[in-house]
C-alpha cells in the first residue's frame, strides 16, 4: 500500500521528495495555481470557514477528513490509487503485455493530448461556477458547491502531476497553459464547448453536475483502463471524488422536482404559469434545461465515427468503461450498428467497432443518465402529476459528430433550420426562461435554518451533521 505524506507543501503518495527536480517544479507551479484560484475560484468566499472533506489517503476506509478550512488553505494533493500487481494491458493490439510505467515515444503526443484535455475541464468548471455562491438556496448547497470546486482543483493537480512527471518541458508548458485559458473567453477559451457555456444559476449547476460531471465519470472510467499505468491509477482515485459531484446534481434536481410537484398537487395546479406565480420552477422549464445540458454533454464524447477513438483503443491508451464486462477485448472483427445521415435521410450503417468506441461509451452514459431521470419521474408521479421528464434523442441539438450541422427535434426527426429556430424556445431555455429562473435566485440564503422556496430540503446532511448545520461560516 502506498505511503501518503500529508505534512509537506504538497500532500502526496508518489514519493515526491525522492525527485527533487520534480518537487521543485511542482512547488514553483503551486503559487501560480493559488493565484488562479484566488482570481477565478469562488468569488467572495475565500476567507470563510467551509466544512469540507480533504483527501488524506487512498484506502477505501477513512480516505478523507472532514473539517472547517478556508478554501485557499485547502490541502490539494497528488494521490494515485495503489498499483495492481502484475497488471497487464486489458484490450487492443497489445493485450496481455505489461502496462507501461513510462510514456512510449510513439504515444507521447496522443497521451499528452488526452491528459491536457481532461485537465482543462477541471479549472473550467470552477470558473463557470465562481459567482453561484451569491445566489445559493441554502448553506448546505453552498458547501456542496465549494466541495465540488476544491475537488475539481485537486483533479487539476492530478493531471498537472502527470504532465510535469512524464512530459518534460512540453508538460510544464501545458501545465502553465491550463491556468491561462478561461471559460467563455473569446480569445483563450477552454478546449471543450460545454465548459465555455455560462453556468450562472443553480438549476444549471445541478444539471451540469448531473450530466456534465457524469460525462467526466465515463471518461475517467475509460482512462482507468489505460495501458499507461500512472494515468490509470490517477483516474481510479479521481472517481472516488467524482461520485459526490454527481450526487449533488442528481439530488439537487430531485429536490427541485419534488418541491414543484408537491406544490402542484397541494394547490391543484396544472399550468406552468400558475406554478411560476408560486415562485417555483415549472416542469417544462426543467425539461428545457435538461435538453440543453444533456446535449452539450453528449458532445463531450466526440464524434460517433472516430479514427482517434479507434487508434486510442488499438494502442491501449483508452478503453471502454469497465472493459472487463466485454467478451471481445480486441474488437477487430465486429461492427456497431449506427444511424447515419446520407442525402438528408437516416440510413443504417455498420461501423467497425473500434471506430465506434466513442458511441459505445456514450451508450453507457445515456443508460446511466436514464436511471437518474427515472428517479426524478418517480418523484413527480408520487404526487399524482401527469408529466415526465425525458432525455431527447441524441441527434437533437448536437455540435460535434455526424449530427452536427443538422437539425432535429427532440424525438430525433430531421427538420429544417427554419423549423428548428421556430421551435427553439419550446425546446431550449429562452431568454425569458433564464431571466425567470435567475429572478428566483436574487437573494442568497446564508441562514443555516432556511431554505429557498423553490427547492426542498435534502433528506439528510453531510457526514452525520444535520441539514441545518453551519456548513459555511459566512458573514453576509
Automatic annotation (TrEMBL):
Lineage of the species this protein comes from: Bacteria, Pseudomonadati, Myxococcota, Polyangia, Polyangiales
Name of the protein: Benzoyl-CoA oxygenase component B
Record-linked InterPro entries: Aromatic_CoA_ox/epox, Benzoyl_CoA_Oase_BoxB, Ferritin-like_SF, RNR-like
GO CC terms in record: cytosol
Molecular function in Gene Ontology: oxidoreductase activity
Gene3D superfamilies: Ribonucleotide Reductase, subunit A
Domain of life of the source: Bacteria
GO biological process, one term: phenylacetate catabolic process
